[in-house]
Amino acid sequence: MAQTHPSNPQTIGVVLHLDGSPPSLAELRGHIANHLHDEPRLTHHLHGSGLKARWRDQPAPDLDTRVRSRHVPPGDSHLNNALHELVAHPLPGTGPLWDVWLLSGYATDRYAICWRAHHSTQDGMGLVGTLHTLFGTTAPPAAAPAGRAGVMTLLHTVRSALVAHGHGFWTDPARTPSGIRVVNWTSVPTQQLRAAAVARGGDTNDAFLAALSGALRTWCADNWPAGAGKPLSAITMINLRRSGERTRPGNLCTFAPVPLPCEEPTAETRLDRVIAATRATKDPARQNALRALMDLTPARAFYTLADRLTSPARAPMTTSYVAIHRPLSYRGDPVTHVQPFTWLPRNQPASVVACSYNGTTSVCFVSDAALPGVTSLPALFDEAAGELPNGQLGSPAEPPGRTTGPEIPPPSPAPADENTTQVVIDFSFVKDLLVDHGALPAEPITQDATQSQAGIDSMAVTTLSMALEDRIGLLVTEDDLAQAATVADLVDLIARRAALPTPSNAPSSPAVDHLT
N or C terminus of the chain with fewer C-beta within 10 Å? Predict the structure, then answer.
């Protein structure tokens, strides 16, 4: 797609906001040079035309053209302008398609590092892996274990992939896609999203999609009559990386259709509908089936499907969500906030990405300029997030008048109070995680059973660790979980860890008794 439509940039990335004095450019280049051997994504690029393109290794890419600095005049508005310019700025024309920009001068004792990459070399979780390699303070999270897929799961997965399209909602002869991108940001406390979703059996991504549905409901009523009162077609990206593929370049993700229930009048109903719609995408067996389809689908057939999803009559909205639970820093300077940005596929109306880090979920809206009123989407998202059940945990991350710039400084995490939904860490909670996320049979999982008797193998332990991290931001390593002798001991370990006010879980965990 990049070669067929070179005018459509596929740049994705993040802005890391740090507290401290900015480093010299030479120092930052040296830091990245020291990690090149750890990150094949930094040294590989696709060489060749079309389907004949193959990965080529360039072990020493030119860092003078890839690690650069920019002085920004004082004031957050100037930083906002600089970020908009960088989102649209071309990547290096040859070799590995990534670069880094050091931004300083806009504030005292603060600076930013903007990481950009071409989507052909990095997907969302690949980008997170690169951040952990370069700026991580702890071991990177585990890769998703392979699930167990049967024939019926494969058939259902094929069917869902084939029906993903936009139903013509976004086709308007008076407003054909312009190819001009409009980028806006907002942010909300992660707890505001997580508490609402966990209480109803969902996760932060579900609440993000429900809030997006609420925002689009209002936006359509005001700006897009063709979509008013209807579910809007969207796809959500699913990570399919497996163990041993953390540093592998390229895209190891796929999409699944998720109709956004914009026709529903209440936030509760929208959230329940989203949770029901995304449940299958979280099933390890379904994810394994998706990966099998990705591996087995001929490249030419994949590109045919991609063309179908980018035709004006079928183009849906793209959504994606990533969470970074483990702290990032550079030279001891903490990363306080992560601000994502993404690309907009050809003919699609909008692409929305959310990233949770350090108690804040930052949301980036990339829209086609032909759509009217798109600058209102961040404020509408803030309002819709506030309407979520048990979601009013604090003030909005930004005042309504500021929706087009970086959220600096980030809002303080919302405190838990008597209105916060508590997650009870007990046997039923852990068993549900093992059954729902680990695809284990429920009968052998009893409190007195050993892990082996309960069917908890290494794959289930990895899944449980990831589920705890994703759903409540609790970091318990696979090694620690594997030490528990019985299921009761496992529950006790998780409950005790949830009660600790550690830096890794204090900012973003729900009020506990306890959960990923």
Answer: N
Spatial CA neighbour of 227 closest among 170, 155, 281, 293: 170
CA distance 43 to 60: 7
Q: How is 479-510 classified by DSSP, letter by letter?
A: HHHHT-SBHHHHHHHHHHHHHS--TTTTTTPP
| Greater model confidence, 156 or 416 | 156
Instruction: Judge contact between 346 and 337, C-beta under 8 A.
Output: no
For residues 90 and 101, give the distance between their C-alpha atoms in angstroms, rounded to a whole number: 13
Predicted confidence (pLDDT) at residue 401 exceeds the cutoff of 80: no
Q: State the Cα angle at 215 between 212 and 216, rounded to 5°.
A: 85
* pLDDT tens digits, one per residue of 172-217: 777 877 888 999 999 999 989 988 998 888 889 999 999 999 999 9
Backbone angles phi, psi at 272, to 5 degrees: -60, -40
pLDDT at residue 97, rounded to an integer = 94
Q: What is the pLDDT of residue 115?
A: 97
Rounded to whole angstroms, the Cα distance separating 363 from 352 reads 7
φ, ψ at 68 (rounded to 5°): -130, 165
pTM, 2 dp: 0.78
- Which tokens in the block code for residue 247? 């540093």
Structure tokens at 405: 């710039």
| Cα(107)–Cα(322) distance, integer angstroms | 28
